[in-house]
Specification:
8-stranded antiparallel β-barrel, alpha+beta, 19% helix, 9 strands
């Protein structure tokens, strides 16, 4: 003999037993939280691989050329001051420069650029020269296409300075790493060249 329970009887049973409905709701919440915990655990495991700073997945050296506009070199200038320095100290504190600078494989200004650096830097210390950079390397050549985003403090008094590679697109999708600066040359206040030793530790 089969037992048939209609939908109406089931509805009446749930209405008459709110305690069971609450239990089912709590079980559902617990299931969702447990699932999120498992996903979080797998995410931590996936990103917990130990990185070896001596073994980047990609490494290359590029040269950054900056020619500051001085009022008479518009044809060659690649950067310009958009906020003048303050009177706080003698180290250009507060000066903001926006740039569109050529990037080459060697240290010759007239070599064919392999990328452009577009962004800004500003001087942020009153007791010594120090700049804070934020810019994007934009590649568009047969060798590389995409971008690398770099930001951090350029402690100009140090021989080498490490800035953070915080992301990228194209050939450098979601990359992470370090860009080590070394001043290759500085001429007056209007031209400087940086060697950038770029080491990437996340490559997809």
């Amino acid at each position: 003999m089969s037992l048939y329970i209609s939908d109406e009887e089931t509805l009446v049973e749930h209405k008459s037993n709110p305690e069971m409905a609450r239990i089912n709701f709590y079980e559902y919440i617990v299931f969702i939280l447990f699932s999120l915990l498992i996903l979080h655990t797998f995410s931590i495991i996936a990103h917990s691989k130990k990185l070896d700073e001596k073994k980047p997945c990609k490494r290359f050296v590029l040269y950054y050329h900056d020619i500051l506009f001085n009022g008479s070199n518009a044809a060659n200038a690649t950067s310009a001051t958009v906020a003048n320095h303050t009177k706080l100290g003698n180290f250009n504190h507060g000066m903001l420069v926006v740039f569109d600078d050529p990037i080459t494989k060697d240290n010759h200004l007239l070599s064919p650029p392999v990328a452009r650096a577009q962004g800004f830097y500003f001087y942020d210390m009153k007791t010594e020269y120090n700049a804070w950079f934020s810019y994007t390397l934009i590649f568009n050549s047969t060798e590389h296409k995409g971008t690398i985003n770099i930001m951090g403090a350029d402690m100009m008094g140090e021989e080498t300075r490490d800035l953070s590679v915080v992301g990228g697109t194209g050939d450098f999708f979601m990359t992470r790493g370090i860009a080590t600066f070394r001043t290759d040359i500085a001429q007056d206040d209007y031209y400087f060249r940086l060697e950038m030793d770029i080491k990437l530790y996340e490559c997809y």
